[in-house]
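In this supplementary section we document a worked example of the pipeline. Step one takes a protein sequence of length 163 as its only input; no multiple sequence alignment statistics are reported here. Step two produces a three-dimensional model, which step three serialises into structure tokens for compact storage. The input and output of this example are shown verbatim.
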Amino acid sequence: METRILMEVEEMINKVREEQGRPFDVTQLTASCMINIIVNMLFGFRFDHSDEALQQFISDMHEFFTNYSMTLDLFPFLRFLPYFKKRIARYVEIYQFVTPWINDNISTCIEVCIFVCIVIIIIIIIIIIKYSMLLLESCPFHELSPCRCSAQVAIKSSLLGSL
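The serialised model returned by step three reads:
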């Protein structure tokens, strides 16, 4: 986690250096760095600071949180008034933009996790089979009666049954 934050801080410092002492608005840069840290922790990637999707996401979230009113939470019947209808319509637009983006990234993460889990399971199965074969070769009863060793027969049948 610390390395992801430090990587984004270095990126922020580089962006500030690019301005060469000229005045600029740091709110956009700060917001994009914070979102990049969160997205990197949740989904494992980061945006370029000039990415249009990132800029749209920042402006939508800024609009949502600056215009949020607790009035509708306290008095839900106000949603029928024209002023609040417009606000709710804008909230729905922002929600419809943000939700598919989040769902797509979650589904991508799930696909990657499923693939990694399958690979790990295959590796574990291979290790179990190799370890079982080593146990068969080192079985002390194997030399006395190779075909009648009960441990060997049980292991072979369970291995062949699972394949």
